[in-house]
Amino acid sequence: MPTLVIAAMKWLPTNDAVVLALACAAAGLPLLVMVNTPRWLRAIGAVLRELALVLSLYAIWGFAGQLAATQPTGAVRRGQWIWDLQRTLRLPNERTLQNWILDSPTVVQSFNLYYAFAHVPSLLIFLVWLFFRHRDRYPQWRNTLAFLTLSCLLVQLTPVAPPRLVAAIDMVDTGRLYNQSVYPPLGEGGPDQYSAMPSLHIGWAALFTFAAIAVSRSRWRWLTLAHLAMTFAAVTFTANHYWLDGIVAIMLIGTSVLLARGVRWLHGVVRSDAHLGIYTRVPGSAGRS
């Protein structure tokens, strides 16, 4: 694979994400607070503000991963425990499924590329679509995304090794096999490799899918289920996640939806109180200077 393509697969460094988030916030917020700002400039400001939020979440994910990576004690043991639990629950065996595709380099490399490329761009496309086509529903799902990401990060502070790093599981690191890995060798920095549980790949893909189905009325919205299925296949067949990593991430979406609704309700209460405070006259105050 050309060097340029491999370089493009490396995820944005955390420090760069912080700088970009600050730059977007610094450029966007003045456009939103300035008086008599033209509508098109306010739209640009709103887009920059939301981009700053997404980049901030990405940076927090990176920092949390770095913290987990510095204390991998017990990560392999926890990964083995999840594997054994899945056998008890009789979930499909990831190793058996991976063996089905190992003889097909095209299929394996396709999953590697999907794992590397589809994660962040698909989320950005979804947010842009939601922002411009369904602005009234955007805050609810953006808040849900924020709560989902933060809740996943809290769980990921407990290091869990993915199947490819648990020798007893005997799964192939397909990214390393074809020189397509987004991860550097262990000990050389880069994205955290001990945050398998839960899978943010699956969490974001599932949120994208559920939101698109709930918001859109187009018959094409059901195609987003293919993205979720492909993401599930990509993260498991490449030995980057267990089935339970994705299942737990999807369960956290329910909690995140409730939290986002709570924030929306609280925001409505605060705005209602502010409105009453401004427009309700205190009895007996009429005529006073």
What does this structure look like?
- This protein is an all-alpha fold and 289 residues long.
- It has one domain (74-279).
- 69% of the residues lie in helices and 0% in strands.
- It has helices spanning 3-9, 14-33, 39-69, 75-88, 94-101, 105-117, 119-133, 138-156, 174-177, 200-215, 224-237, 243-279.
- α3 runs parallel beside α8 (138-156).
- Residues 1-10 and 278-289 have low confidence and may be disordered.
Task: Produce the secondary structure layout.
Elements lengths: L2 H7 L4 H20 L5 H31 L5 H14 L5 H8 L3 H13 L1 H15 L4 H19 L17 H4 L22 H16 L8 H14 L5 H37 L10
In whole angstroms, how far apart are the ends?
78 Å
Shape: globular
Biggest sheet architecture: none
Number of domain modules: 1
Chain-averaged pLDDT: 81
Query: How does the helix and strand content classify structurally?
Result: mainly alpha
Based on DSSP secondary structure assignment, what is the total number of beta strands? 0
Specify Rg, calculated over alpha carbons: 22 Å
Q: Helical element count? A: 12
Write the H/E string, N to C: HHHHHHHHHHHH
Please bin the fraction of helical residues: 55-70%
Spans of at least 5 consecutive residues whose pLDDT stays below 50 are: 1-10, 278-289
Strand content: under 5%
Summary of the model, kept short:
This protein is mainly alpha-helical.
Keywords for this entry:
289 residues, mainly alpha, disordered N terminus, disordered C terminus
